[in-house]
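Q: I'm writing a short explainer about mannose-6-phosphate isomerase for a general audience and would like to include a description of its predicted shape. Could you first generate the structure from this sequence?
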Amino acid sequence: GSDSFVAKLAQANSDQLEVKSDLPYAELWMGDHVSGPATLKTDGRGLDEVIRADPTATIGSSAGQLPFLLKVLSIRKALSVQVHPNKIEAEKLHRQFPDIYKDPNHKPELAIALTDFEALCGFRPYEEIERMLHETAELGQLMGTDVLTKFQAKDSSAVPDAYGRLMHSTPDAITQCIEGIAERMRTASSESSELRDLFLRLYADFGCDVGVLSIYFLNYLHLKPGQAIFLEANVPHAYLDGDCVECMACSDNVVRAGLT
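A: Of course. Here's the predicted structure. Afterward I'll give you a sentence or two in plain language.
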């Protein structure tokens, strides 16, 4: 509703926009991407149409498309854990699944916090993940002895293998693991902690979704207004709460890994 920064920004640019209190206003796109081109305030034409009509005059290039896409996001419930493909991967995905991957572009992006902002971004340090697997018995059991042995041996493949094991675990195994952690957290007398509070928050919103367990593998970041994170190709991340501006290559290609 009206608390959304996106809603306020959109309303400031349109006298006709009526913000409804019971509807979410989560994203405002400013660009010419096929999935959501901006419109000209003067005549309502799509920005993509205007650029294609005379690309040299509008953007100083004959390419016919802006090389970037700007978004404003207002997040009150976590967005999906995701990665963006590199250029070669994006071209392949676009050829094979054009209905899902709408363009052949990569999607490096920069997110700048407008308010206090929470995100998961990139893998935690090796030792930190190893410690969490040992301290969280349910997760260690899900990983299996072979993965835990790799951590003990300081094998460089331990982290990707562990996250791969997580992503390929059966739904029943994921449910057993998450429900076990949730039950232990609900009944334990331990004090509130940052990780415990985040787990219970995501569990309340997403239940036994595999993405809930990503908090044990990915860095949990708190940004202040004006601080930023850069996300290159194949860096797993999820925006959890707050408002931000994103600037990225002109693409909407996303491979999701939970919290959906």
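A: For your explainer, you could say: Residues 171-187 form the longest helix (17 residues).
Q: Perfect, that's easy to follow.
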